[in-house]
Description:
This protein is an all-alpha fold. It has helices at 3-9, 13-34, 36-43, 47-68, 75-97, 105-134.
Amino acid sequence: MNPLSSLAASPLFLRRVLWLDAGTGVATGLLQVLLAAHLAPLLGLPERLLVASGWAVFGYVAAISFIATRPVIPPALVRLLIVANGVWVLGCLALLFGGLVAPTLMGQGFLATQAVAVGLLIELQWFGVQRAAAQPAW
């Protein structure tokens, strides 16, 4: 069995994915809140947008942390996280293609990377919650 298969087969898979999401959220939130003034001109994104979305990410991380620390992870709450992540992806795509802002090439990469990374987290969370539902003992 390859390492990825054994990780996915683990009863801790969903919890680990949630902590991965939380960890990347903390990193992104810190980056956006603490370095917004430096990032805004590099990314071509408004400083206020970076700060506000950074703080929003911290709220999301608090929700993930609450869910990930439950003795049994509630599938309905994970589905709610999946929806929130989907909204984030749509927001990134709207900023990228909607003409609301004029991101630089680096900003386009930043938004595209977030959309792809969060899309991957959606897939992993969906897989984990489906797997957990199939294994009621988890």
